[in-house]
Each structure stands twice: as structure tokens, then as C-alpha cells.
Design brief:
Length: 720
């Protein structure tokens, strides 16, 4: 592996003009394809095989006019005044909403009895023909403009419902992370050229990956969070991978190596670590597809694709750019005397302190991270609803008014779908179902059935007493399903039921996912490090990281402690897919730092150092660059906390905290303590396994023999 990448690095350095042109052509082609074929994003969190999804599919087939997105216009009279006095104004609003483009119809609240007991609040239900993903911005804007006459009459009008859900926008806030990353790169390298080149390389990779993703969006349905996740990861790992290779190239130059040879060796050694670290991340993300949840599969594969592009860019485009900048990759003061002694690095001094205090360091680290993980025991998950949207947003305003006028259950109404082959049978079952639900705890009401045109399908609205994310609502969903289980052709759905089914399916899939991803990654690390204990130690360290990360995320986003510090308006359950998604991402990123640090320890151990000295040397060479990489990745992820969308905000927070904990506590502190404690046993591998496992040569031993043979024969090592 190292020899192959060495050849690739030198070839890219030599033919740098061609490599840059090829990447620019690819970038332009992908950009044109993205502009031509970009499709709409989706907020569909459906899961095939669940009851709620079966009900939705039935509606789409048998009752299409009721299967589109719904809107809810809330009309509120001033205190001391009732809407009955403004019935004509409300009727005008209903007619206005009925004529909107894309709307099937709107229901008068006085006819549907959607007026609050005090007469001040009314709900105008608006039915759209298409799902919320297919509703255009023009249609949504027209919907939001309705009610001007009602407002002129002194009424308050708010617009909510499914139709208001839109893809989160990536604004300028997350660019702060990029600026911080550029500053860290400059402080690390001491050269604006190095910092700018590394950032440029990463941005080109992100642009290519995102353009390719959008080019496929017309044939693959992207969830609204998939592009944001892909951007988040692609940018973070792109910067880090370029940073590692550039850092090794600079070390080679400071050792007196020719620039072309230096670039080849950097790609051959650090590039090998980049490739295997990237493969680990890709395995963790692509592994999400095994749980058979479409939206999660798309998110994982989209992010894995951008990571793969980041790896390709790092091992091909980066050495080409290094060829253009030459010795300017070094600080100006070092170019005249690149081999000057720079003194004992901080990483070596830190490693010696950690090794000397390894037992108390391990105890404090493990117990401290364990304490941070305690809040995770109370973690609750659900799909997001309007009650947790940012304060001031239209959907949040409508949700708050509905809760004030009718109660929290009206913000997450359930729907019973009854279908049969005959209208009479459907009507009979609907009546029996309504009777069976009488007296159900926490159930306010079941509406009269609304039949389809052929009357073979009926829709019954079910009003819970509690909000969509309340534990009592989940209990109610299970109780309703138990009571109607004896009826054929009856299924319960609605956003709340979908969320409960999603959470249950994800919980069932978690053990399978963990077994697959952790198992494959441990095998990969065993192959890389030729050790049993190092991969096991890496996996155990990850468990500490993920436990502490979820504990802090629950503490802030669910329990509300320090919520104001991250701009969170309303605490609530974590989004259903956050745990499994974060486990996959954090595991991949955690193994990144494990590979970068421990591969250098392995390299020095293989070449004769004692285990203790190899650990110190590995930290001496890797601590500075891993610190910079972790700061950059944390800054990039933290930038997404500034996005208003609570789902993206929680993802950015969890990733930023997880990376910081894993890099600085687990990898930079606990790993050297554990490695020194294990000694030579850390590198033990049973002889049968040693014979079976192929040697991937990540530490460059084979590359050194290759270069030595080329030097003796006087031939070009690229062609040997």
C-alpha cells in the first residue's frame, strides 16, 4: 500500500499541471450536472414495513386527495371577543385558502367544530395535493400570505402544519468554522501558503463531493439533512486529511529530502493512514444501509461519498499542489536552513508526563467520562415537531397558539385509516373502531369518518390529550393499536405515530449496526496494526467517547442545561436517528485519530524502538498535527450549531463535543497511558493470524526496502 501510494504521490507531483486540470474539469462537469439534474430534497422519515407507513401508502393509493401535506391556519380573536362575531371574515379566509395553487380544499372551522371552547381560537385545515417536499416555495409563500383581511379586522393569523416544513438552510454561520480552521492551519504551519493550500485542497474536494451528490438527487431522494451532513463531514475530514499529508511532507523537507521525493514519501506513509482512516469512516457511514431505513441509508451513503472524494483529493490533488508551491510550504525563516533543530516537541513532553502518571490518568479519564455519560441513561428520542422549532418561526408561532387554545394534543393529531373492498364494510368498521376507542386514557376525541370518493377508505382523526413527544402519547399509540388490532384493514398513522415507529425500528437495528461496523473496523485495525489489543483498546475508548458525548447532548438539548449557550429555544427529545447516526460518524472519526497516532508508534516500534520510546515518538510526531486536526474538526462542526434548525444544531453539537473528547481525552491522553501500560503486549498477534493477514505496510517498512533497492540499483523508484 505505502509503495503504491508513494508512486502515486510522486507521479502527481511530476504531472501536477495535468492533475490540476483533470480535477478542475471534473469539478466543472459535476457542477454542470448538479445544476442540470438537481432534484428537491425530502423531509420524509418513512420506514417500510411499519404500520404507520402502511397507512400512508394506503392513503396515497386509495385516498390520494387526503395523502398530501396539510396546513393549519390558526385564527385568534382578541381577549374578550369571540370568533362567532367574525364568522364572515373567517369564511373569507377559508375561501381564500381553498383557491391557493396546489390546494385541494380548506375546511371551515365552524363546520368541522374546530373552534376552541372559549370561542377565541379556530383551526382552518388546508389540504394540499402534493407531499410537503413537492410543495414549491411559491405555493408555500402564497399560503403564508393568506389572512390579510382577517388581520385587518383585528384577528391574529398564524400558519403552520406539515407544509411549513422546509429543508434547513446553510447560511453564513457555519463559515465561522472554516475561518477558525484557516487560523489553526496558519498557526500550525506558520505559513499562509501552507494554510491556504490545505484549505483550498479541502474546499475543492467538498465542492466535487457536494456537486456529485446534487447531480444524483434527481434519481436518489435526498433527505433535507443529508446534504448538510455530507457538507459537515466532507469539509472536516477534507481539511484533516490534507493537514496530515502536508505535515508529513514538511517534516520530510525539514529532514533535507528533495521536494518531489518528500511528497511521494508523505503520500506513501501519511497517505496510507489517510486511506485506512477514510475507509473506516466510510464503513461506519455505509454500514447505516444494513438497517434498511431508506432516509438513513441515503444520509450515510451521501456522507460516505464525500469522505471518499476527500481521500482521493488528498492523495492526488494535494501532491500536485505541493509541487506548485515548492519550499514555500515552509515558513520563510525555515527555507534557508530547513534542517535546523526545532527542539523537543510538546507532544513528547506531554507523553512522558502521561506515561509517568499512567495509572491515575487512566482512572481519572475513565471515571470522568463515565460520569459525563450518566445523563444518557435518560435519553429520549422522537422525530422533531413544530413545538421545538425556533421561537419566532411561523410553524412555532402556530404550534404555540394551537397549544394555548386547544391543548398540546392538537399539534400532533393521529389518523386512523380504515379500508375494505365495500363501502358498507368500511362504514361498519369505522363505527366499531370508534366505539372500541371510547374510554381510552389520554384520548380526547375521535372525529367522524371522512370517506374517500369511492367510500371504500375512511379517515378518522384521533386527538391525544398530550403533545407529540410526550411519553403518554407513545403509550396512547400502543393502546390504540392494541384495541383496533382485531379489525382488518385498520392502521394508525400521523406524524407522531411515524416518529414512534421510526424510533422503535432504529432501536431494534442498533445492535446489528454496532456488531457490523465495530466488528469490521476492529478487523481493519487488526490488519493495519497487526495487533489484537490495539483495536480492542480503540473500540473501548470509543465507547467512553460516545457515552460522554450522548450524556452532554442529553444534558443540553433534552434537559435544557446551558441551552441558551447553543441558541436552543426549547429543549426536547433528541431526534430519532441521532444516536445511531452519531455512533457511526464518531466511530469513524475516532478511528481516524487512532490510526494517525498509533500508526507512527507502530512505525517506530517496527524499526527498533522500545514500546515506551515508540509511544513517546508517536506522540512527538503526531500530537501537534492531531491537536490541530481536532481543533479544526471541532470548529467546523461547532459552526453548524449556529443554524436555527434544532436537528442540525444537535448534530453539530454532538459531533463537535465528540471529536473534542475523543481527540484530547481519549486519543491524546488515555491512549499513550494505555499503550505504555501494555508495553510489548500491545503489538502481540498470534502466529496463525500473522500468517493469514496480508501486510498492508501502513508504517512504510516495505517502502523503505523499495527505496533502498532503487538507490542501490540506481533506478527511478517510481518505476521500480
Amino acid at each position: 500500500m505505502a509503495t503504491l501510494l508513494y508512486r502515486l504521490g510522486r507521479a502527481s507531483f511530476r504531472r501536477r499541471g495535468l492533475v490540476v486540470v483533470l480535477w478542475l474539469v471534473a469539478l466543472v462537469a459535476l457542477g454542470v450536472a448538479a445544476a442540470a439534474f438537481r432534484g428537491p430534497s425530502s423531509s420524509d422519515f418513512s420506514i417500510p414495513g411499519t404500520e404507520s407507513q402502511r397507512a400512508i401508502d394506503t392513503l396515497r393509493q386509495e385516498f390520494p386527495e387526503a395523502s398530501g401535506a396539510t396546513g393549519t391556519i390558526v385564527v385568534v380573536a382578541p381577549p374578550g371577543r369571540q370568533l362567532a362575531a367574525d364568522r364572515a371574515v373567517v369564511g373569507q379566509l377559508v375561501r381564500e385558502a381553498s383557491t391557493l395553487p396546489g390546494v385541494v380544499g380548506a375546511v371551515d372551522p365552524f363546520q368541522s367544530r374546530s373552534v376552541s371552547p372559549d370561542g377565541r381560537y379556530a383551526l382552518v385545515q388546508v389540504q394540499f395535493a402534493e407531499q410537503s417536499d413537492a410543495v414549491t416555495e411559491e405555493q408555500r409563500a402564497a399560503y403564508e400570505r393568506t389572512g390579510a383581511a382577517a388581520e385587518a379586522a383585528g384577528l391574529q393569523v398564524a400558519h403552520g402544519g406539515e407544509v411549513m416544513s422546509a429543508a434547513p438552510e446553510v447560511g453564513g454561520g457555519e463559515a465561522i468554522g472554516v475561518v477558525v480552521a484557516l487560523i489553526v492551519l496558519f498557526l500550525t504551519f506558520g505559513s499562509l501558503v501552507s494554510a491556504g493550500m490545505t484549505m483550498l485542497n479541502a474546499l475543492i474536494g467538498v465542492a466535487a463531493g457536494m456537486a456529485g451528490l446534487f447531480a444524483l438527487s434527481s434519481v436518489v431522494e435526498l433527505t433535507s439533512t443529508a446534504p448538510v451532513l455530507a457538507l459537515m463531514l466532507g469539509l472536516a475530514v477534507g481539511i484533516d486529511y490534507s493537514l496530515f499529508i502536508t505535515s508529513r511532507h514538511r517534516q520530510n523537507l525539514l529532514g533535507g529530502v528533495d521536494p518531489e521525493e518528500s511528497a511521494g514519501r508523505a503520500v506513501g506513509t501519511a497517505g496510507s493512514a489517510v486511506v485506512f482512516a477514510g475507509i473506516t469512516v466510510i464503513i461506519a457511514l455505509a454500514g447505516l444501509s444494513v438497517v434498511n431505513i431508506p432516509f438513513l441509508t441515503v444520509m450515510g451513503l451521501a456522507a460516505a461519498g464525500t469522505v471518499a472524494v476527500a481521500v482521493l483529493v488528498a492523495i492526488t490533488l494535494l501532491p500536485a499542489l505541493l509541487g506548485f508551491v515548492g519550499l514555500r510550504v515552509l515558513p520563510r525563516r525555515r527555507r534557508a536552513n530547513p534542517v535546523a533543530d526545532t527542539g523537543r516537541p510538546f507532544g513528547a513532553r506531554w507523553a512522558e508526563i502521561v506515561i509517568r502518571l499512567r495509572v491515575p490518568v487512566l482512572l481519572v479519564g475513565v471515571l470522568g467520562l463515565g460520569a459525563l455519560a450518566i445523563p444518557a441513561a435518560d435519553m429520549r428520542v422522537a422525530l422533531p415537531d413544530a413545538s421545538t422549532s425556533p421561537v419566532g418561526s411561523p410553524e412555532r408561532a402556530a404550534s404555540d397558539l394551537i397549544t394555548a387554545g386547544f391543548g398540546p394534543g392538537f399539534t400532533g393529531r393521529l389518523a386512523l385509516v380504515v379500508t375494505s373492498d365495500a363501502p358498507q364494510t368500511t362504514a361498519r368498521i369505522a363505527t366499531e373502531v370508534t366505539a372500541a376507542l371510547q374510554g381510552t386514557p389520554d384520548l380526547i376525541a375521535v372525529s367522524p369518518p371522512t370517506p374517500s370518493r369511492d367510500q371504500r377508505t375512511a379517515l378518522l382523526a384521533v386527538i391525544p390529550r398530550t403533545g407529540p413527544t410526550d411519553d403518554a402519547t407513545e403509550t396512547l399509540v400502543h393502546e390504540i393499536r392494541d384495541r383496533v388490532a382485531r379489525f382488518d384493514g385498520v392502521a394508525l398513522t400521523g406524524a407522531t405515530a411515524v416518529g414512534i415507529d421510526v424510533s422503535a425500528k432504529l432501536s431494534d437495528a442498533m445492535p446489528i449496526y454496532l456488531l457490523l461496523v465495530v466488528g469490521l473496523s476492529v478487523l481493519l485495525l487488526m490488519l493495519v496494526f497487526r495487533s489484537i489489543l490495539v483495536p480492542v483498546k480503540a473500540a473501548l475508548g470509543f465507547l467512553l467517547t460516545v457515552g460522554a458525548t450522548f450524556g452532554l447532548t442529553v444534558l443540553v438539548f433534552q434537559q435544557g442545561h446551558l441551552a441558551g449557550a447553543v441558541g436552543l429555544d426549547t429543549p426536547g427529545p433528541l431526534v430519532s436517528f441521532l444516536p445511531i447516526l452519531m455512533i457511526g460518524i464518531l466511530f469513524g472519526l475516532a478511528m481516524d485519530y487512532e490510526v494517525f497516532l498509533v500508526s507512527r508508534m507502530r512505525e517506530d516500534f517496527v524499526h527498533g524502538d522500545t514500546p515506551r520510546q515508540a509511544t513517546v515518538n508517536g506522540m512527538a510526531h503526531g500530537a501537534r498535527v492531531v491537536t490541530a486536526a481536532a481543533l479544526i474538526m471541532t470548529a467546523v462542526f461547532a459552526g453548524f450549531i449556529l443554524i436555527d434548525d434544532p436537528v442540525i444544531k444537535s448534530m453539530g453539537f454532538a459531533l463537535a463535543v465528540g471529536v473534542a473528547i475523543d481527540a484530547f481525552v481519549v486519543r491524546m491522553t488515555l491512549v499513550p497511558a494505555a499503550m505504555s501500560l501494555l508495553g510489548r503486549a500491545a503489538w502481540w498477534l498470534p502466529r496463525p493470524l500473522d500468517r493469514v493477514l496480508p501486510n498492508v505496510d501502513i508504517e512504510g517498512e516495505g517502502l523503505r526496502h523499495h527505496l533502498a533497492g532503487a538507490e542501490e540499483s540506481g533506478r527511478d523508484p517510481v518505476r521500480v
